[in-house]
Write a structure and sequence with these properties.
Distance between the termini: 31 Å
Shape: globular
Radius of gyration: 22 Å
Number of domains: 3
Largest sheet: 4 strands, mixed
Structural class: alpha+beta
Oligomer: single chain
Bound molecules: flavin-adenine dinucleotide
Order of helices and strands: HHHHHEEEEEEEEHHHHHH
Length: about 425
């Protein structure tokens, strides 16, 4: 099956209605000024998340560099950057529901998907009407993602998918999953993988929550038992999924790395994996009467420097996304350690009653102390980021891969 691909360049076509940069900045400022009133009474959780995204989309700010035919503005990267700067600290925390769709799946469909996929998925996804999850990791394939065993076989006008995914964030809320599945076992492991869009709400898909030590069930196991996918819901080429997988992971590293740092720095958020902002640690030190303690001050200064470094990395064009991700996870762990020292000097970090909805403020720091470890895993572990930097940025020799040229069916499996 062949799919046509569009070009990202399609996205930046200026015409008479193109605003100037300063006019655009005014537009963004005005949108955020009016946001609290516009969001009043929009409810909580997912309802609020969808309302926020619809407001952003209808204001023409949800898809700044997308082609106009998909509801975008067709503006260049300088406009995206202006929005990013002006929106910092103002984006509602519910935006995290859309991290995988807007940050990863939709850009891949925009850049590599066939026209019918763009027509079907871009606009509803950008407007927050549909939520996406990422069906990559499996019990036997995490860092070694190319070892995945979920199978997809073409049966008439549908693909039939059987296998299991794990750690699938947000699957319980998702209408669609961006799926990697094996379509050729006779090819070496990187060459027999295809990327699909999987409809999640069907009898062949079972989602089971995994409860974390935060008491949250952010991610899930997903079982596919003869799940069905329309034959032409392939992203890129059949058996060409590894290139798609890598392209999506680059978006994920930007998403989980420097780009999102500071995105909601003035809000206390328990969503996602965001380092505790230093301003909140300073406030905590004052509350606990520790703000004059020289050791605490030194730690705060170190964390302030880390936060600055992440924000400078974010503003530096062309930086490898793994650098931002490594800095961010390091910052997340160090900030959580200081919070633990300040908030829980002589007791466990959490009580039996940890409940993210009920005790939001009380448990805020406990949540982050427990949650920060996941930052080093989601989106690829720290070790894998270092391998990537060594091989792709520094040009060091590749990790030995004796199984790279062996047909997948002949490999030893877990
Ligand atoms: C909060 C969170 C959310 C997640 N969300 C999703 C999601 O939505 N969708 C999804 O598909 N996955 C998701 N994941 C899964 C995540 O991508 C994997 O956990 C990660 O890729 C690591 O895989 P693994 O857990 O199988 O560990 P393994 O790959 O088994 O790694 C175990 C240890 O070995 C090290 N290691 C492995 N290989 C190497 C190597 N070659 N060199 C050096 N060290 C190595 C690792 O760094 C790690 O310390 C999520 C994970 C977390 C924690």
């Amino acid at each position: 099956m062949t799919t046509t691909s569009g070009s990202p360049a399609e996205s930046a076509s200026a015409d008479a209605s193109t605003p100037g940069l300063s006019e655009f900045r005014d537009e963004v400022r005005a949108f955020f000024r009016g946001l609290p009133d516009a969001m009043a009474g929009t409810g909580k959780g997912l309802q609020r998340a969808r309302a926020w995204r619809a407001l952003l989309f209808d204001a023409g700010l949800a898809a700044i560099d997308y082609p106009t035919k998909y509801g975008g503005r067709g503006l260049g990267p300088e406009f995206v950057e202006a929005y990013r700067q002006l929106s910092q600290g103002l984006v509602p925390r519910e935006e995290t529901h859309f991290g995988i769709g807007i940050g990863m799946a939709l850009p891949i469909i925009r850049d590599f998907g066939a026209d019918h996929l763009k027509d079907r998925f871009l606009q509803p996804g950008l407007r927050g009407e549909e939520i996406w999850c990422q069906l990559y990791s499996e019990p036997g394939a995490g860092s070694d993602l190319a070892g995945l065993t979920t199978r997809a076989e073409l049966d008439g006008d549908e693909w039939v998918v059987t296998g299991q995914k794990v750690w699938t964030s947000g699957a319980q809320l998702s209408q669609f999953g961006i799926l990697l599945a094996r379509t050729n076992v006779d090819a070496p492991k990187h060459q027999g993988i295809t990327m699909f869009v999987l409809p999640m709400e069907q009898p062949g898909v079972t989602v089971r929550p995994l409860v974390q030590m935060t008491h949250e069930a952010e991610f899930n196991e997903v079982f596919m038992d003869e799940a069905r996918i329309p034959a032409d819901w392939v992203v890129g080429e059949v058996n060409g999924g590894w290139a798609m997988a890598v392209a999506l992971l680059a978006h994920e590293r930007v998403q989980t790395g420097s780009q999102s740092m500071g995105g909601s720095s003035t809000q206390k958020s328990k969503a996602g994996r965001v380092p505790i902002p230093v301003a909140q640690l300073i406030e905590l030190a004052r509350e606990r009467d520790r703000a004059d303690d020289p050791i605490i001050r030194q730690e705060l200064a170190r964390l302030h420097t880390g936060e600055k470094i992440v924000s400078l990395l974010r503003d530096r064009p062309g930086i490898h996304p793994s650098i931002g991700k490594l800095w961010r996870t390091k910052q997340g762990r160090a900030a959580a350690e200081l919070a633990a020292q300040l908030a829980f000097p002589a007791s466990p970090a959490w009580g039996r009653d940890l409940n993210i909805e009920r005790n939001f403020d009380e448990d805020y720091f406990a949540f982050h102390i427990l949650n920060c470890r996941g930052m080093s895993l989601g989106g690829g572990t720290d070790e894998i980021q270092r391998n990537t930097l060594g091989e792709r940025a520094l040009g060091l020799p590749r990790e030995p891969g004796p199984d790279r040229d062996v047909p997948f069916r002949d490999l030893l499996k877990n």
